[in-house]
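Run log // design_07
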């Protein structure tokens, strides 16, 4: 199917005011789901939003997997419905993941680098990635009308994990949205790894949207370094954009 490049639209726009407050998912025709993860050895809560015409159509939809789901679910779904209703992006299913331990789930192995962030239980990114690819995505594909196009979106530490996933398992998702990623983590270790990765890979059939707002510091310098790496050598077929 056609690849959609609407990543720069989705989060570069100011968030639409949420149509619901608290956890009243019924207001926006969404549902809660609890799945038991053998990989994580814990239950994981999901908030799932389907397109408004889901019940009356036979269409299959792309899926946005949204990290830190309880924080970003309402403004993301409101923005998506507004943009889709205007014909600017396709309708899509949103799967918001409520992480019990985001520091554990979103940080890779620091490889001995001194951590400059206070994270009590870091280094579980590979395990969480296994949960996504081996358990969550198949669960969603088996129970909802999905097509083959998948997006992963994360903010802060979730943005760090999003970039890590692109570099570790690019085929896991088609598009990656890294919003204000915590690239200061472990003395910009992921930035160094990005240089090696993007210079060594010849082709990436993915979309990448990278954005930093007013955070500054090592987060901004890390994102600008990655942008410079991609300007110097963009793998074939990779479509990317950096917004500051």
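design_07 sequence
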């Amino acid at each position: 199917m056609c690849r959609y490049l609407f990543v720069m639209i989705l989060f570069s726009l100011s968030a639409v005011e949420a149509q619901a407050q608290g956890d009243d998912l019924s207001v926006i025709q969404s549902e809660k789901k609890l799945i038991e993860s053998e990989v994580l050895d814990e239950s994981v809560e999901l908030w799932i939003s389907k397109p408004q015409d889901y019940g009356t159509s036979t269409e299959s939809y792309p899926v946005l997997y949204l990290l830190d789901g309880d924080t970003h679910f309402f403004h993301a779904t409101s923005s998506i419905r507004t943009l889709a209703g205007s014909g600017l992006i396709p309708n899509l299913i949103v799967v918001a993941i409520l992480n019990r331990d985001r520091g554990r789930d979103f940080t890779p192995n620091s490889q001995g680098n001194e951590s400059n962030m206070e994270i009590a239980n870091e280094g579980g990114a590979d395990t969480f990635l296994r949960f996504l690819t081996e358990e969550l995505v198949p669960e969603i594909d088996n129970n909802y009308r999905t097509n083959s196009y998948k997006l992963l979106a994360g903010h802060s530490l979730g943005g760090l994990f999003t970039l890590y996933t692109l570099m570790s398992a690019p085929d896991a998702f088609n598009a990656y949205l890294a919003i204000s990623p915590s690239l200061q983590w472990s003395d910009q270790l992921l930035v160094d790894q990005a240089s090696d990765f993007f210079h060594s890979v010849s082709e990436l059939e993915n979309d990448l949207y990278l954005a930093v707002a007013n955070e500054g510091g090592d987060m901004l310098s890390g994102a600008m370094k990655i942008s410079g790496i991609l300007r110097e050598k963009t793998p074939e077929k990779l479509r990317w954009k950096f917004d500051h």
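Confidence is low (pLDDT under 50) at residues 1-5, 12-22.
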